[in-house]
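Work Package 3 committed the consortium to producing structural models of liganded targets before the mid-term review. Because experimental data for this complex are still outstanding, the team generated a predictive model from sequence and the ligand definition alone, so that downstream docking and mutagenesis planning could proceed in parallel. The input record is reproduced below exactly as it was submitted to the modelling pipeline, together with the SMILES string for S-adenosylmethionine.
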Amino acid sequence: MKKPRSKSTMADTADKHILYQKSVQSPEFELDFFRDRYNEIRGGFPQLMREDFCGSALLSTEWCKLDPKNKAIGVDVCQDTLNWGIEHNIKPAGEDVASRVQLLNEDVLKVLPQEKADVVCAMNFSYCIFKKRDILKRYFENVLKGLNSDGLFFLDLLGGTETMDVVEEDRDVDDDNFVYVWEQEKFNPINNHILCHIHFDFADGSRMENAFTYNWRLWSLPELQEILLEAGFSHVHIYWEEFAEDEDDPENDYLVGTGNYRAVTQVDQQESWLAYIVAEV
Ligand SMILES: C[S@@+](CC[C@H](N)C(=O)[O-])C[C@H]1O[C@@H](n2cnc3c(N)ncnc32)[C@H](O)[C@@H]1O
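The resulting structure, written out as tokens with the ligand in place, is given here.
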């Protein structure tokens, strides 16, 4: 007699990397941000970008699509994720783009590619995996060694009063029939260690639980600025999102993010924020 087979759910059949790329990453915005800041600070446009903690190398691939002169080096310790990126991002971009993306299955603390980069980036707070100040400084020193004399290092950081709390937030991902859920399960104010997860919920009621888990130290902007300067960077700029009245909903009392970021030295605390940090060689 045939055994009844349970029907697979949407969560069973979904690919967590595709969901992550659609809900978390914004390559178009970030690559424009890198090019615009580089042009403002240095003049001209960068060509060789190194993407640390590159995962599926989406940014590296999009970087090489932007300009036929662009090249990228993606660095990640997880060969499986790099392989996923080769199949789903790099190969589909075509031979010319693929020939300009180099992937290194290495530790960002040790990697030293032959060619120095114009830009190194470490996005989505990945460096928060380093919980000790001396290790984070060692990472920043290694980035500096891998940058040209007019290079720039880009990082991002999340913060705000809500990030020091236990919270769960969800967001519909447009047109894609799933919900992105960000859970902060624990925050320890003694050492600022934070445990977070990404889950995905689907229209059939299924959930991909703990698709990604992050065990981080939530660094602060003053700490990062100090450690970057101690590591040898010459200047550090903090870019903060501008807020404006909600044009779509004038009744709304809250200001909404405009997507424009400006270099600032003083802001008011918010419940949550995402800042970009740019460090100059
Ligand atoms: C949060 S994902 C970041 C993915 C992508 N960069 C982004 O912006 O969304 C973190 C990645 O860092 C990688 N990773 C963790 N520790 C690393 C290390 N010491 N050196 C290189 N990669 C590392 C993991 O394998 C994982 O793919």
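Reviewers should note the following from the model. The pocket of S-adenosylmethionine is lined by residues 24-25, 53-55, 75-78, 81, 107-109, 123-124, 126, 129 (CB under 6 Å). These observations will guide the Year 2 experiments.
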